[in-house]
Structures are given as structure tokens and as C-alpha cells.
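# step 3/5: fold
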Amino acid sequence: MGHGGNVIHELMTDHREVEEMFARIQALPAGDERRREVADDFTIELVRHSVAEEQYLYPAVREHVPGGGDLADKEIADHATVEKLLKEIEGVDCGDARFGVLVDRIISEVSAHIRDEEQNLFPALAEACSPEQLNELGERVRRAKKLAPTRPHPNAPDNKLLAAGTGLVDRVRDLATGRGKSS
């Protein structure tokens, strides 16, 4: 899908891409090796997306949206839950029954998070910010995703502080292993 435009369009495009990956993994039979590739793909996308949101979207929500601090805190807590699940699935063989359970939990958590952002946070942000502010946020989010980590780091002290360096290390590891090449 084409990316660009304001932050809401950018992030909703990410959401649709992740939902498509979820549909792909659900269509594959249990134990199929391709499930690992799809899980790696959605892990990469979710980590990059989350880091960019935490760097730029949620600070903007705190600044511009009435009650934005509570909204941002809830979304960040959702990210922490998903990141732990992504870290857990990273170490589980796709033939293990736990793999399917983790996929289902990730899909459930992420789907609820997407609904919440699209029904509550995005409309509030659109109302509180000018089109220019939303476009600038979109640019910042796109830049952040290019540098962001591609692997979950749930025990890292702050994704914003580690993003560029950790992202570089993750991308080198991905290149060496071929991880993320199926998307």
C-alpha cells in the first residue's frame, strides 16, 4: 500500500497492512513454516509502527487533545502488552501449539488497539490539530519507521531513546538471517 499524507492516513495504512498479514497467517495450516515468515513480517511492522507512535503520535496527543494524557497512556500500555507477546512468539517454533495461541492473542490485542485508535484517538487528534500539523506528524512518523527497531525489546528502558541504534542492529541481524524478506 502507498504511504504518505497525514499521520492518520499513514497509520491507518499500516493498520490495513497488519490486518492483511493477520488474514494470511490465519489462512495457513498449523505448523506450516510460512506462518513463521508471516509472524516475522507482522512483528517487524508492529514494532516499527509502535516506536513511531511512541516517538511522535502520543506526545502530540498529550499536547493537543483534551484528556490526551490518559489516551496516550492507554495506547502505550497496549503496546507494552503486544511487545511482550511478540517477544514470546519470537522464541516459539511454529510447529508448537503455543505458536497458534500466541498468534491468536496478538491478533486479538492488536485488533482491539486498532479499533480504539481509529474510533477514539484519531478523530480526537483530527479535531485538535490543523491539517499542517497532521501532515508534519505524518512525515515524522514515516522517518521514525525507517530507523526504528524491527524486533521487540520489551525490557528496553525507553523505545524513543534506543530506536535508531537498536534499529540499525536489528536491520543488520535481519539482513544476515533473511528475516522479513517475504513481505
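# step 4/5: annotate
The first helix runs from residue 7 to 27.
# step 5/5: archive (pending)
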